[in-house]
């Protein structure tokens, strides 16, 4: 009986060590930024390795775009003007080296450039082959990862809208779970020198301004879950306690018969 009691205490202690083990991104107070949090991006998104994009190429500074909007047909354009449009939905890939393989011009270094800088750079390169090329470029795999308060509820949210807010991203992930703390939401954003951790409070109306915070591609949004020590301990040790209880009953019955 004493061995059973000692064993039960040992099992309880070891199980308690695994309570709330699913918690992520534990940070020190000095590592968290709570003041002067940027509501809008301070700079344009920079193309990163493994980004995917589509691009559209027009000539004559995009004259075909205006023609299409105004109803002008190609036959009414200036005689001899070069009218070429390259438009497709092919996803091009930025390699880890920072280069992307594009039609005609081959490999192009794009890593670290903003979308506007990349468009201007491609326009210069295609100018060798076309008259006054006009390039439109769109990143297609921008996304954020949202942990809404429960590990099993994590979602990868595509950023279809460039101005997607924090509230929209959380809503697209299904909202904050019952276990999530709305007053402790961390936004982990990548910078050249590493990730910065912002913490916002959406539990009061004062935090409403942070609901309109524009998220950026590759942000991690982590809603801290509340601690549920008693429930988790019972879930961990419940099956074992059931076995031990059954063993005690069996031993008691045997001792009674003897």
Q: In terms of topology, how is this protein built?
A:
Elements: H1 2-16, E1 32-33, E2 52-58, H2 63-70, E3 85-87, E4 92-93, E5 99-102, E6 106-109, H3 115-126, E7 134-139, E8 143-147, E9 155-158, H4 166-172, E10 180-191, E11 194-200, H5 208-211, E12 220-225, H6 229-257
Parallel strand pairs: 1-11, 8-12
Antiparallel strand pairs: 2-3, 2-4, 2-7, 5-6, 8-9, 10-11, 10-12
Question: Mind explaining what this structure looks like?
Answer:
- The protein has 258 residues and is α+β, with helices and mostly antiparallel strands.
- It has 2 domains: 24-43 and 143-229, Outer membrane lipoprotein wza fold like (Roll); 52-139, wza like fold (2-Layer Sandwich), CATH 3.30.1950.10.
- It contains 6 helices and 12 strands.
- The strands form 3 sheets. It has a 6-stranded mixed beta sheet, with helices on one face.
- A hairpin with a 2-residue loop joins strand 10 and strand 11 (194-200).
- It is elongated.
- Mean pLDDT is 79; it is low at 68-83.
Quick description:
The protein is of the alpha+beta class and 258 residues long.
Return residue spans where pLDDT drops below 50 for at least 5 consecutive residues: 68-83
CATH topology of the largest domain: Outer membrane lipoprotein wza fold like
Pattern of helices and strands = HEEHEEEEHEEEHEEHEH
Radius of gyration, in Å, reads 29 Å
| Whole-number tally of structural domains | 2
General form:
elongated
Q: What's the story with the biggest beta sheet?
A: 6 strands, mixed
Spatial separation of the terminal alpha carbons:
16 Å
CATH architecture of the largest domain: Roll
Structural class: alpha+beta
User: What is the typical, i.e. mean, pLDDT?
Assistant: 79
Helix content: 25-40%
Strand fraction: 15-25%
The CATH superfamily of the largest domain is Outer membrane lipoprotein wza domain like
